[in-house]
Design brief:
The chain is 52% helix and 17% strand. It is an alpha+beta fold. The chain has a four-stranded antiparallel beta sheet with strand order 14-3-16-15, sandwiched between helices. A four-stranded antiparallel beta sheet has the order 10-5-12-11, with helices on both faces. Pfam families: Rotamase_2, SurA_N_3.
C-alpha cells in the first residue's frame, strides 16, 4: 500500500501489533518447543527496570525475554547474535513488550478477569513437545525438557497466563474493520494525486577519486570501517551420519523371514480373478426388477438405466474383496458367481438394490515364493531398515539424555565422525572457499548454530529414508576482523571507491543548490564538467508508487511524493553507483469525490489496519491507567550486560 499506510504500520499501532504477534510467538516458542530455548541462568538479580502497577519487570525478566526472543529469531536467522539484535532495536522492543504484557495483565485482573489454572494446564497438555510415545501429555518429559533449558514450571505458566490476558483483551478489537466513508475520502483522494518532475544523475564512475591513498590513509580507513572486514562467527560442525547403509547388515532379511512373510501374506500372491462390472443402484425393488428385466432381455444396462432416469457406473479390474467393500458381500458373491456377459440382480446392497452386468473377466495367475521373492525382499528390507534406524536413534537419544558426549556416542555406536571447515551460519567457509555444503549439511549447520556453547549434541533428520545425523559443535571462532595485511587490496579498493562516492556527493550537492536557486537542472549538470546522462522527465501517481514497492523505482518515486513543488533533493543510487537529483515540477491534487471505487478501495485498505490502531490506543490507555515507571539506569545496565556477555 502507499507510504502513509506504511507509516501507520510503523507507528505506535505497529508496536502493539508486534507485541501481540511476538507475544503469542514467544509463548508458543517457550512452551511449544522448549528444546530450542536458550539457557537462562545467570544475570542480574534483584534489580527492577520498570514498575507496572503493582508488578515489576526485573533485570532478569528483561534479560530472559531478550535471550528467548533472539533464540526464536535464530530459528530463521541462525547467524543472529545479541549485538545485532540490540543494534536493530530489539532490546527496546522487548522492554516495551514486557511492560505492555504486564500492564494488560494488571488491567485484566483489575477488571475481574481470571485465567484459571485448569486453562493453563490444558494449554500445556496440548503442546506436542510434551507428549509421550502414546500421544498423551507426559509429566516426566515435561520436567525433563524444562530442566534441560533451566526453566521452571512457574515461568511457563506465567508466560501462558500473561499471553492469555493479552489475547482476551486485544484480539476482539484487532478484528474491527469498520471505517466511515467520509473519513476514507481524503485517503482515497491522496491515492489519486499525480506529480511530474525531472531527474538528473551523476555516476560515481565519472568522478575522479583523487591522489593515490597513502599507507596512513589505508590504516585510518581500515580502522574506521573495520566492521566491513570482520568475519562473522564461525563454527566447526562435528557430525556422524546414520543412514540405511549404516544398518544394512541388520536390514537383510533371512530366508526364514522371507518364507514367513510369504505365508502370512499368501492371499497377495494367490491366483485371483478380476472383473469389469457395470452396475446400477435402484432405490426400490420394483424399479430394480424392471431394470433387470430389460437388461436380461438384451437392452444395454447403461441405456436401460438412462431411460429410467438413472446413471450406470463402471468398476474396472475389481477383485472380489475390494468390490465387496463398495457394495456388499451378497452383491460380490452374485457378481463373481456369474459368467462373462451375465446380468445379475436385483440384489440388496448397502445403498439399495443392485443390478449389474459382468463385462469382462481376467484371470490373474498367482506367484510362487521364488517369483515373489524380489518384492518381498524389498519390502522386508525397508521394514527392517526403518526398525534398525529407529532402534539406533532411540539408543543415541537415550545416551544423549544421560549426558553422553559426541565422542562417547560415536565410539559406542561405532559411527564415523566427520567435521566441516569453520563455517558461518549460512554455510560459507572463509578459509576453505571450495567448500560447498549439501542440503543435508546445511541442515546440520543450521542446527549447530542454534545450539549454545556446551549444549549436548543434537539429532538432525536428513533425507527421506529415515536417516539422521548426530551433530555437535566443535571449535567456535568468535566474530573478529581480518588483519589489515590480509585484506589490504580490498581496503585500498574500498577507500578509492569511497573517495569517488564522496566526490560525487559533493558535486550532487552543488548541483542541488543551484537547482533550488532556480538554475535549470541541465545547465547545473553541464557545469560539473562531466559527461553525465541527460536529464529525464518523471511522472507518476500515488498508485504507481504503491505498485513500485520493492522495485528499483520505489525510492525515486517516494522522494518525488515527499517534496513541495519546485524543490529538489538528492538520492543515493543503489550500490553507491551515483547520485540522483530529483525535482518536482508539477503537483495535481487528487479528488475522489464521487469515485465510489476509489473510496471503497481506501476503506478496505484502512479497514485492515484500523483494528490495530484501536488496540494501540487501548494499550496506551491501559499503561496510563496502571501507571508505568521505568528506571533508565537499570535498563542501560541490563542492555550493557547483554552486550558485554555476548549473549546470543
Amino acid at each position: 500500500m502507499l507510504s502513509f499506510f506504511r507509516r501507520i504500520i510503523n507507528s505506535k499501532a505497529g508496536v502493539v501489533v508486534t507485541f501481540i504477534v511476538l507475544g503469542v510467538i514467544a509463548i508458543a516458542f517457550a512452551a511449544g518447543d522448549v528444546t530450542n530455548i536458550a539457557g537462562m541462568a545467570g544475570g542480574l538479580n534483584g534489580s527492577d527496570v520498570a514498575k507496572v502497577g503493582d508488578a515489576k519487570v526485573t533485570a532478569n525478566d528483561l534479560r530472559t525475554a531478550a535471550q528467548n526472543e533472539v533464540a526464536a529469531y535464530r530459528q530463521e536467522q541462525p547467524g543472529l547474535d545479541m549485538a545485532q539484535f540490540i543494534a536493530a532495536g530489539g532490546f527496546e522492543g522487548v522492554l516495551q513488550r514486557e511492560i505492555a504484557g504486564l500492564a494488560l495483565e494488571q488491567f485484566g485482573k483489575q477488571q475481574g478477569m481470571v485465567v484459571s489454572r485448569r486453562l493453563v494446564d490444558g494449554q500445556i497438555a496440548s503442546i506436542p513437545a510434551f507428549r509421550g510415545p502414546n500421544g498423551q501429555f507426559d509429566p516426566a518429559l515435561y520436567q525433563q525438557l524444562l530442566a534441560q533449558r533451566k526453566m521452571t514450571d512457574a515461568q511457563v505458566r506465567t508466560d501462558i497466563e500473561r499471553s492469555t490476558f493479552a489475547q482476551q483483551l486485544t484480539i476482539p478489537t484487532v478484528g474491527a474493520t469498520q471505517f466511515a466513508t467520509q473519513m476514507a475520502l481524503p485517503y482515497a483522494s491522496l491515492l489519486l494525486e499525480k506529480r511530474q518532475g525531472e531527474v538528473g544523475y551523476i555516476p560515481t564512475r565519472l568522478v575522479p577519486a583523487g591522489a593515490a591513498p597513502s599507507d596512513a590513509d589505508v590504516q585510518t580507513f581500515y580502522t574506521r570501517n573495520v566492521q566491513r572486514y570482520t568475519l562473522p562467527e564461525r563454527r566447526v560442525v562435528r557430525y556422524a551420519v546414520v543412514n540405511p547403509a549404516a544398518v544394512a547388515a541388520k536390514a537383510t532379511p533371512s530366508d526364514a523371514e522371507i518364507a514367513r512373510y510369504y505365508q502370512t501374506n499368501q492371499s497377495r500372491y494367490a491366483a485371483t480373478q478380476k472383473r469389469d462390472v457395470t452396475q446400477v443402484i435402484v432405490a426400490d425393488q420394483a424399479g430394480a426388477n424392471a431394470l433387470a428385466a430389460k437388461a436380461k432381455g438384451g437392452t444395454s444396462l447403461a441405456d436401460a438405466a438412462r431411460a429410467a432416469g438413472l446413471e450406470a457406473s463402471v468398476q474396472k479390474g475389481a477383485d472380489k474383496a475390494a468390490y465387496a467393500t463398495q457394495a456388499s458381500a451378497a452383491v460380490a458373491d452374485a457378481v463373481f458367481g456369474a459368467p462373462q456377459g451375465g446380468v445379475i440382480g436385483p440384489v440388496r446392497g448397502t445403498l439399495g438394490f443392485v443390478v449389474a452386468k459382468v463385462d469382462a473377466i481376467t484371470q490373474v495367475p498367482g506367484k510362487t515364493l521364488a517369483q515373489a521373492r524380489p518384492e518381498i525382499v524389498t519390502e522386508l528390507t525397508k521394514q527392517k531398515q526403518a526398525a534398525a534406524l529407529g532402534e539406533m536413534r532411540n539408543a543415541i537419544e537415550d545416551s544423549l539424555s544421560g549426558n553422553a558426549t559426541f565422542d562417547e556416542v560415536i565410539a559406542d555406536r561405532k559411527l564415523q565422525a566427520q567435521t566441516t571447515p569453520a563455517v558461518t551460519a549460512q554455510g560459507a567457509a572463509p578459509d576453505a572457499p571450495a567448500f560447498q555444503p549439501t542440503p543435508e549439511l546445511r541442515a546440520m549447520i543450521t542446527a549447530a548454530f542454534t545450539a549454545e556453547d556446551g549444549d549436548a549434541p543434537q539429532i538432525v533428520p536428513i533425507g527421506q529414508d529415515g536417516g539422521f545425523a548426530v551433530v555437535g559443535v566443535g571449535q567456535i571462532q568468535r566474530s573478529a576482523p581480518r588483519p589489515l595485511a590480509q585484506v589490504r587490496s580490498q581496503v585500498l579498493a574500498d577507500l578509492t571507491a569511497d573517495r569517488a562516492r564522496t566526490a560525487a556527493r559533493t558535486l550532487a550537492n552543488a548541483v542541488l543548490a543551484k537547482v533550488n536557486k532556480g538554475m535549470p537542472m541541465a545547465q547545473a549538470l553541464k557545469e560539473t564538467g562531466l559527461a553525465v546522462p541527460p536529464v529525464r522527465p518523471i511522472a507518476a501517481s500515488r498508485r504507481d508508487l504503491a505498485a513500485a514497492q520493492n522495485t528499483p523505482a520505489a525510492a525515486p518515486l517516494a522522494l518525488l511524493f515527499s517534496m513541495p513543488q519546485n524543490k529538489a533533493r538528492t538520492l543515493a543510487a543503489p550500490q553507491n553507483e551515483g547520485w540522483y537529483i530529483i525535482r518536482v515540477t508539477k503537483i495535481e491534487p487528487g479528488n475522489a469525490t464521487g469515485n465510489d471505487a476509489a473510496i471503497r478501495a481506501a476503506r478496505g485498505d484502512i479497514g485492515r489496519l484500523i483494528g490495530r490502531e484501536y488496540v494501540s490506543q487501548f494499550a496506551r490507555a491501559v499503561r496510563d491507567a496502571v501507571v508505568v515507571k521505568t528506571d533508565p539506569k537499570a535498563v542501560a545496565k541490563t542492555r550493557s550486560e547483554l552486550l558485554n556477555n555476548g549473549s546470543n
